[in-house]
What we know:
- The complex is a heterodimer of chains A (90) and B (189).
- By secondary structure, chain A is α+β, with helices and mostly antiparallel strands.
- Chain A has 2 helices and 6 strands; from the N terminus they run E-E-E-E-E-E-H-H.
- In chain A, strands 1, 2, 3, 4, 5 and 6 form a 6-stranded antiparallel sheet that branches.
- The model of chain A has no long low-confidence stretch (mean pLDDT 92).
- Chain B is α+β, with helices and mostly antiparallel strands and 189 residues long.
- Helix content of chain B is 25%, strand content 19%.
- Chain B contains 6 helices and 6 strands.
- Chain B has helices at residues 19-22, 35-43, 58-67, 99-105, 124-129, 157-167, and strands at 2-8, 51-55, 79-86, 95-97, 170-174, 182-188.
- Chain B has a 3-stranded antiparallel sheet. A 3-stranded antiparallel sheet of chain B has the order 2-5-4.
- Chain B starts with a strand and ends with a strand.
- The model of chain B has no long low-confidence stretch (mean pLDDT 93).
- Classes of the chains: A alpha+beta (90), B alpha+beta (189).
- The A-B interface holds A 2, 4, 26-29, 32-34, 36, 47-51, 53-62, 80-81, 83-85, 87-89 and B 9, 11-12, 43-45, 47, 63, 66-72, 74, 129-133, 135, 164, 167.
Amino acid sequence: xxxMQGVVNLKGKVPDADGVAFLRAEWWDxxxxxxxxxxxxxxxxxxxxxxxxxxxxxxxxxxxxPKLDAEVQKRVHSIWKIVAHERFAA
Amino acid sequence: xxxxxxGVGVGTHLHGTDLQTTGISPMNPGAAHxxxxxxxxxxxxxxxxxxxxxxxSEGVAIDYARNxxxxxxxxxxxxxxxxxxxxxxxxxxxxxxxxxxxxxxKQQDPLVSPSYHHDGNQRFLQHVxxxxxxxVWPTAPRLxxxxxxxxxxxxxxxxxxxxxxxxxxxxxxxxxxxxxxVTHRHPIY
Lengths: 90, 189
C-alpha cells in the first residue's frame, strides 16, 4: 500500500450530508494545493475521493445527485478550515 | 507554434480516454461564454462550463496530474500530462483566451466599484495567494474618525480569478481542442 504524506481525520468533525460521511483528507505531496477528501456513502467508502482546492476553497468534483451535491458543497468550508488548521497552523 | 499542457488526474472525467484520439471537449459546450462564466470557472472551479483549462507551465500540469487525482496515481494507474501544440492560425471554432487579460480588459473604469480593488493593507495579496495559511481573514484598516467599525477585507471575484489564473499560468480554450493538436501524453505517478 502506498504511504500517505499526510492525513487529517474528519470522522465526527463534520456533519454528515444525507448519507455522506466525511472520513479523512489525504495528500501525498507536501507542497500540493489540493487534498483528497475521502468519504463514505451509506456506510460504504467510495473508491474515488473529492478533490478540495485549498486556494479556491471548493470541491472540484460533484455528486451525481444535485440535491446531495448541494448538501456536500455546504460542508466544504468546514472541511477546509479543519484541514488548513491541522496542516498549516501547527 | 505554442505549446500548452493539461494535467489529467486519475479518476477525473478526462482520465478514461486517450485525449490524443478524441481531442478535448468542455463539459458543457453549449454554455454561454461570458465574463462571469470565465470568473466562475476559475475562482469557483465551475467545471460544467464551455471552457477547457490549459496551462503554459509543465509544473502546473504535473501538479494537477499528480495532486488533483481522485485516487493516488501509480505506475499501474498513472495520471497524465498532455502536450497540446497550437499553430497560428488557430483552428476554426476554437478560441484561445488569456483569462487574466480578458478579466482585466473589463475593469477599465476606475469609477466603477467594486472592481478588482481590495480595501486591505499592502500585505493582503498574501492572503489571496495562500488562502490555506490565512485562517484569520484580515480586517480592513480604518482611519481615525472614519465612521463604522472594521470589516473583513473585500475580495472580489475579479481579483480572486486573476490571482488564481496566475497561479495556474492558465489559458482557456472556448470550443474543442482537436485531436491533432494533442501531440504527446506523459504518465505521472
